[in-house]
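USER:
Try writing one entry.

ASSISTANT:
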Amino acid sequence: MIALEALKALLIGVVEGLTEWLPVSSTGHMILVDEFVKLDVTPEFLALFLVVIQIGAIMAVIILYFSKLNPFARTKTPDERRSTWRLWGMVVIGCVPAAVVGILLDDWVNAHFYHAYVVAAMLIAYGVVFIALERRNARRFAAYARGVESGVVKGDVPRLADGSLDPDGLFAVRTVDDIDWRTALKIGCFQVLAIIPGTSRSGATIIGGMLTGCSRTAAAEFTFFLAIPIMFGWGLVKIVKYIAHAGLAMDSTEIAVLVVGIVTAFLVSVVSIKFLMGYIKRNDFAPFGVYRIVVGVIVLGYFLAKGLAA
C-alpha cells in the first residue's frame, strides 16, 4: 500500500518539477495526472500535498541561485551586497499584485474557473501568445543583426562564447539585476493572470517580462525568484489550514507520500531549471507555445469525450 502510493507521489513529483518552471502550466498537467494517478488519501491531505511539494521545487531555485540571492555572503563586496538587497526589493514589489489578488480572489477563482475546459482554453491561448511574441522577437532580432552587420548598431554588442550574436542583446533589460521597480511591478501584474488555472505562473511572468523589455534570461530568472515568497507563503497557508482542520497527525502512508513528492519535485526541478536556462541561450519559447496548444487540445478532447460518454 505504502509502496504504491509512494510510486504515485513520485510520478506527481516528476510532473511538478518539470512543469512548475517550464512555461507549460503545472495545473494543466496535474488535471491529466489526477485522472489516471489518484492518491488514496483524504481530500484535505491531497490539497496540502499538491501545494507542499512546490516547496521542494522552490528549494531547487534557492540552492541553484544561493550565491546570487544571499546578501550576507562574505565573498561579496559592499556593492554586490547592495545589489542583492536591491534584487530582493524588486522581488517583493513584483509579488505585491499577486499576493493581494490571491488573498482576495483565490477561493472564488478556484470555485468558478477550476475546470478542465478553462484550463484547456488557457493552455491554447497562451500557447498562441508565445508563438506570436517570439515571431515578433525573431523579426526584431533579424533587423538587429542586419544593423550590427552594417555598422548601424554601434558600441558593445553582446556575443556568445562562439562569437555569434547574443539574442539577449536585443532587449533593454539584459540581466535580472537591470530590472527596476516599474518593470518588477509590471511583471507582478502579469503574474496575477496566473490565478486563472491553466495560465502557468512562469508562462505569464515570462511573457510579461519580455513585453516590458526583459531578455529571456532576465525574464526567466526573475520568474524563478518571484516564486520564492509566493510559493513559500501559499505553502504556509495550506499547512496552517490543514493543521486547523485535521491536526498534526499523519499516518505512515501520508508521510511517505509527502517525503517522496517533495524530494522528487526538488531533484527534477534542478534538472528542468538548468535545462531551461541553457536552452534559452540559443533558442526561444515558441516550441513551448506549440507544446501548450497540443496539451490544451488533448485536455479539451479528453474531457469532451468523457462528458459525452457519461
